[in-house]
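input
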Amino acid sequence: MERLHHQMKLLVPLRPMSHCICILISMICYMKRLESHQKMVGDGLPKDRPTMEAENFFKLIKDGQREIYPRCTKFSKRSFIIQLFLLKCPGRWTNKSFTMLLKLLKEVLPEGECLPKSYYETKK
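output
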């Protein structure tokens, strides 16, 4: 992703709003490719011993597919965070205000919610 980001910077000097949109589009495309690869490989990990990096990657994918709270069918964790980013970028929210919103949502959502605690955790 950093390589793609670097290539995009070289091609066009982006303003903050278009920069965020490009990153989000790249993330969505990457996740779609990954999901189709995962369907080809199967739901589990490959039969041969995967590397630690691959295991962490598959855990990250599974985590993104979780419901944001029990019995929520409208959003997965990943889709909800993408929607928040789509609000953050055009609204020019600071990282601190984004973290404040996440903390509020964590208090409001039912027990069992799985939202990240901060902007920094969201980016991981």
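quick obs: Residues 3-15 have pLDDT under 50 and may be disordered.
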